[in-house]
Amino acid sequence: MEQPSERKPLRADAARNVDKIITAARQCFREQGPDVPLQTIAATAGVGPATLFRNFSDKEQLVLSALSRELRQHVDPVAQAGLDGMDAAEGLFNLIDALMRVASDEANLLSAVAGRRGLLLGITQGLIEAMATLLERGQGQGSLRRDITIEDMVRLVAMLIGAVDTMEPGSEAWKRPVALAEDAIRTERLPRPLPEQSDIPGFSFSGRG
């Protein structure tokens, strides 16, 4: 399947339609969940189904394009700022924070491609490379544990993103597990309290102190 990054340049009117469809997809997924029909997205975008299918062969391609746009807009600049900065550990966790914010805000988009690891890697490869660079630099600076590998980091971030399913979409509940992960990876724990605990939707725990 053609990846979003491989799309050919579009005419101005076609590019506007693509932008409207992706914007509508984000709105519909947020409001109606991961099973929203493509026809609903087309209607919300103000285009016909034929226009949608001319640009996106299926829901998967549309979802990946929407996620790719969110990463380009909200995560890529943070990754670049980290690579340009002096404190690699700070840059690494700013990057993870940005990823987690997108994962929380776009939880329904992620649910629509759950389990499609290869496809998701296709739109995050550049971010993984930035993460690897920041990890290596942080280890050289002595701020990050030397026994952590990029494979560890990819799995850790995948686990953190998976934890979004236990949180209210769009909340900042992800900040606490990210802080716990940061404490485990840094050579010295930051002098700060953990972010506030949040409830798991649908679960009640007795005996919580």
UniProtKB/TrEMBL annotation:
DNA-binding region in chain numbering: 37-56
An annotated Gene Ontology molecular function: transcription cis-regulatory region binding
Entries under InterPro entries matching the protein: Homeodomain-like_sf, HTH-type_TetR-like_transc_reg, HTH_TetR, Tet_transcr_reg_TetR-rel_C_sf
UniProt keywords, alphabetically: DNA-binding, Transcription, Transcription regulation
Residues of the HTH tetR-type domain: 15-74
Region (Disordered): 190-209
UniProt keyword DNA-binding present: yes
PANTHER family in UniProt: HTH-TYPE TRANSCRIPTIONAL REGULATOR BETI, HTH-TYPE TRANSCRIPTIONAL REGULATOR RUTR
Protein name: TetR/AcrR family transcriptional regulator
Lineage: Bacteria, Bacillati, Actinomycetota, Actinomycetes, Micrococcales
